[in-house]
Amino acid sequence: MTPHSTTDRGADDAGMTLVELIIYGAISAVVLSLLATLFASSLSAEAQTRDRDTATGGAQVVMSSLQSSIRNASEMRVDGDVVRAVVATGASGWSCEAWALQGDRLLYRSSESAIALPDASGSGWATLVSGVSGAKNGSPFSIAGRTLNVSLAVKAGATTVPAAGHVLAQAKQSGTVKQCW
Question: Which residue in 7, 18, 37, 170 is a FRET match for 26, CA 20 to 30 A apart?
Fold first, then answer.
């Protein structure tokens, strides 16, 4: 029997050469980098979608609150970044409701008596939505006749959604007129 030389290879000695190993490693690296890029893109898209949904939800809360109350209002008053209204409440009569843009928050307050303008801390007011700003230069609220004009924007992350429109006050007070300012 002769000893095996290094040039003799049996079926059991078959394996990968260094060149094959380098090629497989390079292909694996390319595939993994493509998967990592795809994963990073999906995370970015998910974050953008979440920001858009958050901003859209905030804009809907703002407009829903204003529309449902102002449509039932008999009188409104705008003082800078604050709108106050006398709102019909059904069986209990009338209440005072107010919205104030303070910093990046839209504050809300409801009371049976007159509502004063908010102080710097917003004490006594509830934050309706954060990330809110005036959409145009000037006041975010204005009144034309019995119509309240709203010009706000809600921002979440890098996404900004407008919260703008017009709401007509439709209620009429009879008897003793309630004062909310």
Answer: 7
